[in-house]
Amino acid sequence: MINKEPVSGHLRIRLFNDSDQEIGRATTPVSFPSDDARYVPFLLDKEIPVLMTKFVELDLKPE
Asked: With the C-alpha atoms ordered 13, 16, 20, 23, is the resulting torsion angle positive or negative?
């Protein structure tokens, strides 16, 4: 994630398969100062078929 402005809230990732069906999601709290860049780890349940992921969506719920 790369941001120009300070960011604080909960970042959610949603995983989708070839049929555009959601196959998993996870949320993690984030807090970045302005002009920062870093990897954001998500803890996914082991039952989520990650290898079937076609695309992901990210969204931020600000605090």
From this structure: negative
